Amino acid sequence: MTFTLPKLQYSLADLEPHISAETLRYHHGKHHKGYVDKLNELTLGTQFASFSLEKILLTAEPGPLLNNAEQHYNHSFYWKSLRPQGGGEPKGVIADAIRDAFGSFKAFKKTFSDAADGHFGSGWAWLVREDGALRVLTTHDAGCPIRAAQTPIITCDVWEHAYYIDYRNERAKYLDAYWSLIDWDFAAANLELSMGSKPVNGVVARSA
Ligand code: MN
After folding, report:
1. Number of domains into which the chain is organized
2. Ligand 1 centre and the CA of 117: distance in Å?
3. How far is ligand 1, taken at its centre, from the CA of residue 77, in Å?
4. Does 137 lie in the same domain as 57?
5. Contact at 8 Å (CB) between 181 and 18?
6. 120 — phi, psi (to 5°)?
7. Is residue 86 part of a domain?
8. Cα 93 to middle of ligand 1, angstroms
9. From ligand 1's centre to the CA of 100, what distance in Å?
10. According to the model, what pLDDT value does residue 196 have?
11. What is the pLDDT, as a whole number, of residue 1?
């Protein structure tokens, strides 16, 4: 089974001025592609070659195969968490769920930003649904919440490669930009899926 680099749903320059075309060219075309290529290399000729990405995530032992599978999932999810002219405050069911969990959108924004900015080293900040409620968490390196039965709602990549070209060492400035890019429709769709019967959302398409 061959995994493929998903196409971005926007052009490289469409997230400017918040994230540059150069960052996207490297982040998607080099970093993410590298994880996909490595995943294909590591699954070739093994039992994992016939598994879906989700099945690999849930069954692989910690190590290079799992790391690359997680990075493929996480990046695919990250690209969909962003959109041109995104951001602002969510509406509808996702807004209600955020208010229920954090008290207000402002409080959620601070919780998420503090977690992302305070995360030591490489990793990911997430809004997830777990046991029926939303919560914010971070994962180290390639860590993926679905291994812990947490359903991702949105994510922010806090590896330096996500922001170093645009903001150098200033992760907080990248996080400010992130709030202008969040695709709340994607978040709402993930929340609604998580309230249905499917335990894992299927955002990552696998080629035949
Ligand atoms: Mn990345």
Report:
1. 2
2. 15
3. 11
4. no
5. yes
6. -85, 120
7. no
8. 29
9. 30
10. 80
11. 62
